[in-house]
Specification:
Blueprint: H1 2-16, E1 35-39, E2 42-53, E3 75-77, E4 86-91, E5 97-104, E6 112-116, H2 118-123, E7 131-138, H3 146-159
Parallel strand pairs: 2-6, 3-5
Antiparallel strand pairs: 1-2, 2-7, 3-6, 4-5, 4-7
């Protein structure tokens, strides 16, 4: 009982001090939903919220898609965007943008929609603050591979009312996100 009381006090103190508290294992972080917007006749995935960046301790660790995390490459972690997809992340405070490849899962902190490599965060000029409000856009037409394009199209179809069809009919709209079990694994962390 004393241990539980100490944990509750520590979490309360951290919350009141404004320190970010990681979500406990049995809870889910609250993240704004991904939605579909139309741009130049194309349906694109859009995710708005807060971006953070990986702590240096994650450099060299394995990401959800099996790659080695490299702080010098423009990569990112997202809980919802398909692995392997290319996303454009725009810092809404200064208008700076960077293209990243989603290769990991995370972040698991309320309100955060993407966790960037240090290189990507530097291009958005968010290193000093540690976080920034961002708009993340994923266009099917700009994907680096056919597989990534198909995964993005499937996600668009899942989120577009009226496009869903019965599961298991063989159509790309069947509800399969194109991911694998590794889509749920995360090794990401936050720079702040």
């Amino acid at each position: 009982m004393k241990t539980t009381h100490i944990i509750v006090l520590a979490l309360t103190a951290a919350t009141l001090s404004g320190t970010a508290v990681p979500v406990l294992a049995n809870e889910k972080a609250k993240v704004p939903p991904v939605h579909v917007e139309h741009e130049d006749g194309e349906e694109i995935l859009v995710h708005k919220g807060e971006a953070s960046f990986y702590s240096q301790k994650f450099h060299g660790r394995t990401t959800a898609n099996g790659e080695t995390m490299n702080q010098n490459k423009a990569t990112a972690a997202s809980r919802t965007l398909p692995l392997g997809s290319k996303a454009t992340v725009t810092n809404q405070e200064n208008g700076k943008s960077v293209d990243v490849i989603v290769n990991d899962r995370g972040p698991y902190v309320d309100g955060r929609v993407i966790d960037l490599s240090r290189s990507a965060a530097k291009k958005l000029d968010m290193i000093e603050d540690g976080t920034a409000p961002v708009k993340v856009e994923v266009k099917p037409s700009e994907q680096p591979t056919d597989t990534a394009r198909e995964k993005v199209e499937e996600k668009v179809d899942q989120l577009t009312p009226g496009n869903q069809v019965a599961q298991g009919d063989g159509n790309r709209n069947s509800g399969n996100s194109g991911g694998s079990r590794s889509d749920t694994v995360s090794h990401s962390g936050s720079g702040k």
